[in-house]
Amino acid sequence: MNDDFQAQxxxxxxxxxxxxxWKTIDHFLQYTHPETLGRFTKYDYGTIRNQGIYGQNTxxxxxxxxxxVPVAIIYELSAAVNPPLVCSFDA
Length: 91
Known about the structure:
The structure is a single chain. With 91 residues, the chain is mainly α. It has one domain (3-66). The protein contains 3 helices and no strands. It is globular, with a radius of gyration of 15 Å.
């Protein structure tokens, strides 16, 4: 977990439990594990359930090449959780 993310995590969870399910929070936390860092995967149910759901031991990557949805990135200069330096992208 990088230092920026680790510093932002308490701010992001400051409204916990907020409008999120436990599964959503768990899925988010799965991305903080070293083995999944930088990989955008489906929910990890564990080896046995993954085998039944996905047909493989690990969750598959989301295929963003086939995803076509409009996206808007909205932030404010004083945002604590996602300041402009964190909100960068290539168009």
